[in-house]
Amino acid sequence: MNNLKSIADLQVLLHKALQKTSFVAKPAELYEPISYILSLGGKRLRPVLVLMATDMYGADVNAAIPQAIGIELFHNFTLMHDDIMDAAPLRRGKTTVHEKWNTNIGILSGDALFVKAYQSIVKTEPKYLVALMDLFNQTALEVCEGQQYDMNFEKQERVSMSEYLQMIKFKTAVLLACALKSGALVAEASAKDQQHLYDFGIHIGLAFQLMDDILDVYGSQKDFGKQIAGDILCNKKTCLYIKAYETASVAQLQVLDYYFDSVDFPAQEKIEKVMEVYEQLNVQSLCKDMMDEHFAIAQTHLQDIEVSEERKATLQEFAQLLMVRVN
Q1: Closest Cα to residue 73, out of 107, 31, 28, 118?
Q2: Domain that holds residue 231
Q3: pTM (2 decimals)?
Q4: Number of domains in the chain
Q5: Looking at the domain assignment, is residue 326 inside a domain?
């Protein structure tokens, strides 16, 4: 069985593979934005998870490179379109595609990126193709459903925590789960282990998004790479908002309603007033408790995977790093 590769090893493999994936073509306006968003970097968490799962079983990670690239291309497609829908000015600390070019180019380049993701996913042995495509298609639809729920919540008067968790499961967690299961599938892991890895991905993904909610308000723009408190400015009903609404007094509810009923306030005023309520209700700590709960569930699924603890080490390291991130 091959020696287990480190996260850094897998990132290097992925980086080299992405460098070989050329998007130099005409018309330039269609392809240059794809090269641009991929050049913004990031930790490449999702594609590395594909390789990590394959490597866990001692299989050749090169066999899963196309699926890893496909997952990364799909993820960047969602970012390109999400930024348009959120009117986001920054992505990973740089100008978003629709701001650098225009909205129409952002939409069309995103569509092309989605097609490129499919072209990469299908580069596999025929025996894996149907299962991989079923998994990817299910995931892609759920990501779209999650984005629609997210947009619905901006206008929905009340959002329950269960509704919110379902939304972030679809919008964020299922892609992590898909990445892990794809890698395990190519490695010919048992159906039971594939499911445990999928469930690990779901709960680590929920924890990841809850941390993202916290960082949006309590991180720094330098470290986080996005506009701080953008969720507040866009009236997004995140974990912080929902927890606040569940425990707020009448006076505190009035403040939340006042500032979330409109975007027509000076940005700094809105951020400060909403954060005052969040601080009073200690919602940062309450959301961190939820994050820790999902992290613990993820750990139980990792423990149940039928490989040695040594073979789980890289994935365990990844999970730990995820929970101490600042961006």
Answers
A1: 118
A2: 7-307
A3: 0.91
A4: 1
A5: no
